Amino acid sequence: MNITIAGAGYVGLVTSACLAEIGHIVICFDKDTEKIEDLNRGWCPIFEPGLQEMISRNMGEERLFFTDQANLAYEDADCILITVGTPQRADGSADTTNIDQAALDIAENIQKDVAVAIKSTVPIGTNERIEAVILDNAMPGLTVEVISNPEFLREGSGIYDTFHGDRIVIGSSHERAARIVEEIYQPLAIPVLHTDPRSAEMIKYASNTFLAAKISFINEIANLCDLSGANIEDVSTGMGMDKRIGNQFLNAGIGYGGSCFPKDTQALEQMARQNDYDFKILRAVREVNDRQKQTLYRKAKNLAGNLSGKRTAVLGLSFKPNTDDIREAPSLDLIRDLLDEGADVVVYDPVAMEKVQRLFGDKISYASSIDEAIERAELAFIVTEWKEIKEFSLSKYRESMKTPLLFDGRNCYSVKETEKHGIQYVSVGRPGVPDTYTGSRPTDAF
Ligand SMILES: NC(=O)c1ccc[n+]([C@@H]2O[C@H](COP(=O)([O-])OP(=O)(O)OC[C@H]3O[C@@H](n4cnc5c(N)ncnc54)[C@H](O)[C@@H]3O)[C@@H](O)[C@H]2O)c1
């Protein structure tokens, strides 16, 4: 079977490499010529653990090809998986322009019957609409069946998730296309759930927004722990032991970011509005997250006062560890707040520095290591829990910083350990931290 993947982003590249790895012949198409040139030169344009090696291996064994030519990509395809981006519009809704463009390219170039699966996250009803767009513009007489096949991989563990997913959802009113797509994934031996297309589209939004809600909920509990003297770590552990709740997504911190949760939450909220439905929880999830992103900054202001001219290290820039993706990353909000205060900001991340540099240029400084970033700093913020940041020796903060004042947005260290090292340590929802909202400090704080 000839498989074409439209879009060489985080989802498209991981899916292309993994499908080639299980023996399929895959052509990955992207309209971004520079990206395709990089890939054909053997350079993977994104950081995703194991991806560069998997792409190189499958290109070498002639199962994986990259092109920016729509005709080469689509004319011979039996199955097309669409993984193009669906960014957020100003009103919060999902922008499906890329999907529509892919549909027109497909229509113009296909020469035979084809199954098309939309893996991108799209508003309810998009699959049906896109099938009509392709059929209206394709050569008459061709059978084109569009089905929904939402993607659930997580950046940073995309390859693992593709091979070990909890479920594959196929939303289809076409038996033949559903069978073709199920056959493609069959070697992965992952349970398949068949639904109608609209339910499949909704499963994706419902899953992502539920997870976002879980994060905002635990962050609200953490804020209340800050105010009441409880410890969020113990609270999360106790909650997570309840099988009905589960122990994942209960880590309090400075909020979620990334290319999915923020935009999918807003898109579902917008879809609800279009249906004259007030989705109250979703609005709260988003508002809580927006406030949470400022938590550390507010604590810093409470504790350190005027930040103007203070050398301030920001450690970890990507929206989570093991990715270079900085879309909606909490680090960006923090950097902006610090710059507004006139702080002298120096940043470090193992892989996301280049992308941040494109945004902030020479407004901030870029360190090549944690050591360099915290040298002579008066404050340091941990924003992303990269392994090297989590495991960085506490004694070095004491030795290198001008004043060892550490704000930890990911609760990487035990409070007791930081006390032993004589570090002023502020985290999220654990005792001994200043109250975020009133500015008053618990008596035993510092
Ligand atoms: N990133 C994730 O972790 C993740 C997980 C699950 C679902 N999703 C969803 O999958 C979709 C893709 O996300 P992503 O993060 O991979 O996006 P991305 O921005 O990393 O990549 C999208 C790619 O599509 C290309 N593109 C745009 N229009 C095109 C067209 N007409 N033809 C061919 N290529 C085109 C772009 O050039 C880009 O390379 C989104 O809908 C997203 O919500 C993403």
From TrEMBL:
NAD(+) binds at residues 30, 35, 86, 121, 155, 263, 327. The keyword Oxidoreductase applies. It holds the Pfam family UDPG_MGDP_dh_C. Belongs to the UDP-glucose/GDP-mannose dehydrogenase family. This is UDP-glucose 6-dehydrogenase. InterPro entries: 6-PGluconate_DH-like_C_sf, NAD(P)-bd_dom_sf, UDP-Glc/GDP-Man, UDP-Glc/GDP-Man_DH_C, UDP-Glc/GDP-Man_DH_C_sf, UDP-Glc/GDP-Man_DH_dimer, UDP-Glc/GDP-Man_DH_N, UDPglc_DH_bac. It catalyses: UDP-alpha-D-glucose + 2 NAD(+) + H2O = UDP-alpha-D-glucuronate + 2 NADH + 3 H(+). Its EC number is 1.1.1.22. GO terms for biological process: polysaccharide biosynthetic process; UDP-glucuronate biosynthetic process. It comes from the Bacteria. Transmembrane segments: none annotated.
